[in-house]
Amino acid sequence: MDTAAAVVAASTDIESCDFDDSSSNNTKAKEAAAAASAVVSAVGTIDDKKDADFDPITLPQSTHTLLFTEPVCSKSFQFSVAIATLSILCLLLALTNNGITLDGIGQVPANVGKAVKIAQFASIFIALLMEEEIPTGLYLLRRIPKTYFKSKFPELRYSKFVAASCLRIFMGYLFLVNVLFLLMMSDNVIDIFFDFIALQFLQQLDDISFNLARMGVFSKSLRVATTSKYFRTEFRRQTKVKRSKRIGFFLKAIYFINLMILLAAQIFVTVKQGNGDYQCKSITVIIKDEVWEESVVQMPGEESKAMVLVYPYFNGVYSQDGTSHDGRPVYVEQKKFDGTPFDTTSPEPKTISIKIPARIQYCKSIRAWVFMHDYIRKSTHHEDSECPWLLRSEETDVYDIEQVQGPWQVWAGVIGKTDGMYVFACSLFGYISSQISLLYFHTAASSLLHLQSI
Q1: Neighbouring residues of 346: CB distance < 8 A, sequence distance ≥ 6
Q2: CA-CA distance, 315 to 358, in Å (whole number)?
Q3: Which residue numbers in the chain have pLDDT < 50?
Q4: In the beta sheet, which residues pair with residue 259?
Q5: Lower CB count within 10 Å: N or C terminus of the chain?
């Protein structure tokens, strides 16, 4: 009351001043204006402090609120149930589309580019800012205890209020789970943000439907329900300041826990992608009917010489050796009979020759997956030491070799194209593929000279 009187008095002083050209009146007016400004500033400070301690809230304007303010048999309640069911159904369908099925989790990309990785981690923070159902549900439960709720609405059931708040929390976590698997399965920046918009729309169906019902779009009964006294009733903070701080700390802790879970899951996937864990550990390669009559073979410590290269000789299983090249795994040729690695060491290198396996790897310089061998070159003068390919795919940026499309180019003195190279991912054919490889191996060995010393 004293503050209000001070404001009125200051205003009266200003109005009583006769604003003419006299300096005395101008001085009085300035003094009165300064006093009024100081009083208003003090009032603002007091009101801000009161708002910080006793900021009133109202029930959220959402169809979720109608779940406990309206009778079960009413059209408003049934409308709210329908909207909640539709939202949950759409989020579950989105979850299956993102890779979750009854058979387990879908295919995670073998790897993604830097731009996609940055977008994935940035999207985690965006998701937590966009998601409001979890904090709203928790805040309502912490802010409105049962006794306070019954004092305001004795005709309503508190258990329905709790159930509606729990439904909010459930839908919020369903949204975050969708976000998590969306990020895991994405390999394109634009797709990530478009999918985010779609998920946010699904989560806001309750708010959109409520606003339409309040405008009278659906029916008169829904308009009456959405404009009832329940949405105008204020809930003032009934707890002490210390308890209010605990509520704020609780909400911050929930945000932090959700953030840590999402970050940990995304980091786990990113590390496994970098290690090649989502790519085939071994592949079966079959090359048909490709021969190079005068291949250039350069053995260590020897001069280069021309030999006949029979490409089917290198058919068989290729496995990751634990190394990578240009961000993709390197596949190394394995023994034909048992699929184990070749022994690349020899007790007597001068008398006992060893088998040096071929490799399949990605070369960023030519943007292609390539088949190569350390001892074979295109010519003695061909400068291709960075990536001496013998077969190469079409230009591509894919991280998984099984996603390579189109014919491969083969070097047989000149560049040609072949439709005869088949990469069977993950060696799915098992025993059959190994037998096919052996068949081509024996055919090549019996028909032409091959590189026995390689």
Answers
A1: 352, 353, 354
A2: 10
A3: 1-12, 14-23, 36, 38-53, 101-104, 241, 428-436, 440-454
A4: none
A5: N
**pLDDT computed for residue 385 by the predictor:** 64
A 10 A CB-CB count for 360 gives 23
As a whole number of angstroms, the distance between CA 270 and CA 6 comes to 64
Nearest residue to 389 (alpha-carbon basis) of 407, 412, 355: 412
The answer to whether residues 343 and 330 touch, using CB atoms and an 8 Å cutoff, is: no
Q: Are 339 and 281 in contact (CB under 8 A)?
A: no
pLDDT computed for residue 386 by the predictor:
75
pLDDT at 338: 75
* H or E element in which residue 84 lies: helix 75-97
**CA distances in angstroms from 100 to 75, 104, 106, listed in the order given:** 35, 6, 6
How would you classify residue 261: left for phi > 0, otherwise alpha for psi between -120 and 50, otherwise beta? alpha
State how far the Cα of 394 lies from the Cα of 408, in Å rounded to an integer.
Answer: 6
pLDDT tens string 70-119:
998 999 999 999 999 999 999 998 888 766 544 445 578 888 888 999 99
In the chain, the amino acid numbered 150 is K
Which is nearest to 88 in space by CA: 173, 17, 191, 149? Answer: 173
* Residue 377, φ and ψ in degrees, nearest 5: -125, 160
Rounded Cα gap, residues 293 and 262, in angstroms: 57
Report pLDDT for 7: 43
Q: What is the pLDDT of residues 409-441, one digit of tens each?
A: 887 666 666 665 666 666 544 444 444 455 544
Long-range contacts of the stretch 210-218 (C-beta < 8 A, 24+): 210/61, 210/62, 210/63, 210/65, 210/66, 211/61, 213/63, 213/79, 214/61, 218/79
Burial of 347-357, coded b for 16+ CB within 10 Å and e otherwise, reads: eeeeeeeeebb
Q: How far is CA 382 from the centre of its chain?
A: 44
Report which DSSP code applies to 311.
G
Distance (Å, whole) CA 228 – CA 71: 13
| Closest to 360 in 3D by CA, of 290, 283, 432, 292 | 283
| Token representation of residue 27 | 């001085």
